[in-house]
Amino acid sequence: MTSQVRGAQLARLLGQWHALPGRRRSPDYAALAGTVRGLLADGRLPLGVRLPAERELAEALRISRTTVTAAYRQLRESGHLASRRGAGSWTMLPGTHRVASTGLWTPLDDRDMIDLGVAALAAPPELVPAARAAAEDLPRYLGGAGYHPTGINELREAVAAKYTARGLPTSPDQIMVTSGTQHALDLVLRLALAPGGSVLVESPTYPNALAALAARRARITTHGLATDAAGWDADMLLGSLRQGRPKLAYLIPEFQNPTGHLMPAELRERMVGVAHAAGTDLVIDESFVDLPLDGTELPPPVATFDRHSRVISIGGMSKPYWGGLRIGWVRASAPQVQRLAAARVGVDMASPVLDQLVAVHLLADASAIVNARRTQLAAQRDALTDALARRLPDWRVTVPRGGVTLWVELDGPISSALARAADEVGVRLAPGPRFGLDGTLERFLRLPFTLPAADLVEAVGRLAAVRYDLDRAGRPRWQEPAVIA
Q1: Model-level pTM greater than 0.85?
Q2: I want to staple 198 with a disulfide (CB 3.0 to 4.6 A). Which of 246, 318, 348, 399 is the partner?
Q3: Bridge partner list, 250
Q4: How far apart are CA 173 and CA 156, in angstroms?
Q5: Alpha-carbon distance 434 to 287, whole Å?
Q6: How confident is the model at residue 139 (pLDDT cuts 50, 70, 90)?
Q7: pLDDT tens, 112-123?
């Protein structure tokens, strides 16, 4: 069944859809159509959604119906909208585009770009030897059916040992292997959250987590993060748990995505106690826990303070190792792991045995691999921050002590407009509103430092030129929007 977006909802998503001050404005209908295309390109407006009637959207935006009619006509002409008399208009995929592996859109003739939309590293050199060793181990498993809903014992033992080494005693029975961290989150939501349940998340937060919550029809409330190094406001976060008493809270305490903040130990302990009193389960995303930089010491895991099975931790191999290795995990109580396995059987049965064996060999060499990643990331982070300071000094950056991203405060609410303009010069961006709700965060931009330093410096140079052009007089050009992952 086709879902529908109401006029007020679309108005919030559209935000400041007019051209920027200081630039000769395009016609209102063209600016409106271009902003809708931008929402479609970066996934904030999905395929198959019925748009509001022309009169309803005109009233929500306080513009003439003629303007909306012309914008809808332009969207139909570009292949982004289909309409049928009496049935309305709904979003669609243009014939010149395809759905990429990220789930978002990209042109069929996608040119070679500096892609700052994806916060992930290329594979380490140790991956190929690990794959060869895994292939040699595989015959030990070929006599069985190959279905291991909680994961093969070797990998569960290796992951449990990682937690124990961090000061959190863990047995293999508390580990369930999944097909990536996103899959782990989806399974936990199936178990812990009924459709329509209330969830507290940080703002900004990981876009795919918001998508998973939307799929569960969750009622989402947010706790805003500060832009400085402090990150979480303890009183506000704990107050949101006490007063809202959400069924679940999704948090990223280690080098939060996208801000890079690190939650202090004292707040972790208080948060677990308040969550228990409020009846809230905590889903703790540890995707970046292996990537502290500059010798930063990590606080104890959040689950260290858990005495009542209120904390479910999820993590995986994507960020420190490689996104193409779809291995993640859940750490929870042994009974919760068994319930997750029962729920999983109706979804995908089990993770590939060969991939799990590759993960076992990579984890055995974790110290060397991860230390090299940290050195690489620190150098690339410094190259990116230095380039921003030189070329875009009005942008505000708090340098993170770990993770893979900068959360940049821009010099105006221009994030989406900048992303569309940057695409024209071969730079792909993830604008701030991708990381929030209802079109907010237009003053922010996530910039990963996972590409080689030379590419990052070149990208900043192009962004500086684009930022300058946004304030110059001149008619904007429109191109097909591309994927933001």
Answers
A1: no
A2: 246
A3: 201, 283
A4: 8
A5: 19
A6: very high
A7: 789 999 899 999
